[in-house]
Amino acid sequence: MTDTSDRGGPGSPIPDDADVMSRDMRWFTYATGLGVRVEAEAVPEPRPDTEVAPALPEAALGDRTPLPRGTAELLERAPYPHGRAEAPRERADALGHALVAGFGLQRREPENPFNDHRPYPSVRAKFPVQVLVRDGRHRRVLDLYRHALTGVGRQDGAAGPLEVALAGRYTRLPDSYRWFRSSLVGLELGINLRQLCLGLDMFGLSGRLRLPDRGAAGLLTDFGLTPESEWSLPLTVALEDGGPSVTAAPAERAADPVLDGILTVNRAQEFAGSAAPLGPSVPAGLPRDGALSWAEVLWRRSAGRMPRGMYGMTGRRRPVPERALREAVSWLSVPPPGPHLAAAWEELRLTAVFQGIEGHADGVWHLRDGRPTLHQARPGAAAELETHYGYPVTPYAGGDIRHASAVWFLSAHPRRLVDRLGPGGFTAAQYAAGWAAQGISLAAAATGLYARPARAFQEVPTRQLLGLDPDEMIVCAAITGTPRFEGLLCDLRL
Q1: What is d(CA 261, CA 399) in angstroms, rounded to the nearest whole number?
Q2: Are the CB atoms for 75 and 277 separated by under 8 Å?
């Protein structure tokens, strides 16, 4: 991640009063010149929030291949952070365990309105990203509630490499999110990519990542993901030599002008070049204390809790040992795989508000060369941030920022991204930020904290508090702190 803490910039190119649902689209238009209409009169009224796409693709009606059982037990014997599970001899079983490790159900909290928990977060627990597998003739989707890979799309394809694809469905998120669904799905694709890499690593599998190019839309057809205008272009990881063999699809337009704008952003990706080998997803320098297993870390992952069916999260303020900060910084030192995502990663700036962390003054910090550097001592900065958070504390919901130990912000200059990577750099930055946010989530789980990725901070006052440039966009944030509430946990692991 680049150090830009002392750079100035021109005035903000985005209106200060731009609403959160259209703000990112305005940044994209500013950076690329590819205009998208975001005025309210240009789009129809949103459907009710209950009207969303189903949890699995409609085409998921084929035969099921059961996933192996016993993944949790294998992970219990793998010490965090450097231990690995015993890999089965059969590649299909190893891949099945890897998918369960990366994405499998963990637990149910009876008082939580958003169930069930997985080892990674998702907006409203909608999990819009699907995990898809191709192995020659067969196309299948990860079906966690049936603990199986369920047939989807074509089942008569030509022989090809074993590969896993990640594709997000925008209409799985409520219509009220409007253009914002573009960024949210992009971030979740980055989160899911890190989980896929982690699962593969846990079970001794390697692969090569291919980002979307001009032919990537053909994969949507191949997997039967329709209407294709509701889906993001897939990220593909090949586990065997070879690459995707698909027919390039024509440019798409959506009847819904909001979806059409989202497609303009997503279909701007044309990343050329060969697939890149997956690098590490876990930092190499973490200390070996042997106190936790990987099963425990994935089980602990939480975005915060509330009692009695309430929404949001809350915490309690307490002194946090420096180890928790070192853990997060270590996870933030691992870039996503491939040159394109590595370049987007380098363009991200990481700024944080710390509170009560051993050896570190309360205030605003920058991450420079892998080390936190004080930008401004500012006691009470976390409480200030709470006033800029989009979900205020109410009798029905928690939006507790004032007690957080660290609030991490990933930001970037959109025009620099596009100058370096082309129009697809805008989306690549979201993949990279999602990758980073999941690193923060796993570091928090290993140190007894919750971590809540968020895009709900008001950008203008938050940018001013953090000392960011006027032409700098906040891509993602992650709130970390000590949970206040505990309760019954029902184990769902297999």
Answers
A1: 31
A2: no
Give the C-alpha separation, 275 to 238, whole Å. 8
Contact (Cβ atoms closer than 8 angstroms) between residue 72 and residue 294: no
Both structure tokens of 222: 């191949």
Nearest to 146 by CA among 80, 38, 69, 258: 69
Comparing C-alpha atoms, which of 238, 302, 281 is closest to residue 445? 302
pLDDT tens, residue by residue, 35-88: 888 877 678 889 999 999 999 999 898 899 999 999 999 999 999 999 999 999
Q: Which of 132, 147, 2, 7 is nearest to 64 (CA)?
A: 147
Could you check whether the bond before residue 81 is cis, i.e. omega within 30 degrees of 0? Answer: yes
- pTM, two decimals, is 0.96
Cα separation, 467 vs 7, whole angstroms? 10
- Going by C-beta distance under 8 Å and a sequence separation of 6 or more, which residues neighbour residue 386? 393, 399, 400, 401, 402
Length of the chain: 494
Spatial CB neighbours of 192, under 8 Å, sequence gap ≥ 6: 103, 120, 129, 131, 166, 434
Q: Is 315 helix (H, G, I), strand (E, B) or coil?
A: strand
According to the model, what pLDDT value does residue 392 have? Answer: 86
Q: Helices 180-202 and 257-266 meet at what angle, rounded to 10? A: 50
163 Ramachandran zone, left/alpha/beta (phi>0; psi -120 to 50): beta
> Nearest-5° angle of CA 418, CA 211, CA 261?
55
* Helix spans in 359-422 (H): 381-387, 414-421
Please check whether residue 327 is in contact with residue 358, taking contact to mean a CB–CB distance below 8 angstroms: no
Name the strand (E) or helix (H) holding 466: helix 459-466
Nearest CA among 431, 475, 421 for reference residue 270: 421
If you compute the radius of gyration of the chain from its CA atoms, what whole number of angstroms results? 21
CA–CA gap between residue 96 and residue 5 (Å, rounded): 44
Q: Is the peptide bond before 419 cis (omega within 30 degrees of 0)?
A: no
DSSP H or E segment with residue 13: none
3-state secondary structure at position 85: coil
pLDDT in tens, 144-193: 999 999 999 777 766 678 999 999 999 999 999 999 999 999 999 999 99
- CA–CA separation, 444 vs 334, rounded Å? 16
CA distance 321 to 119: 24
Mean pLDDT, residues 424-446 taken together: 98
State the number of CA atoms in the 13 A half-sphere of 358 facing the CB: 8
User: 137 in helix, strand or coil?
Assistant: coil
Specify whether the CB–CB gap between 74 and 85 falls below 8 A.
yes
Q: How confident is the model at residue 232 (pLDDT cuts 50, 70, 90)?
A: very high
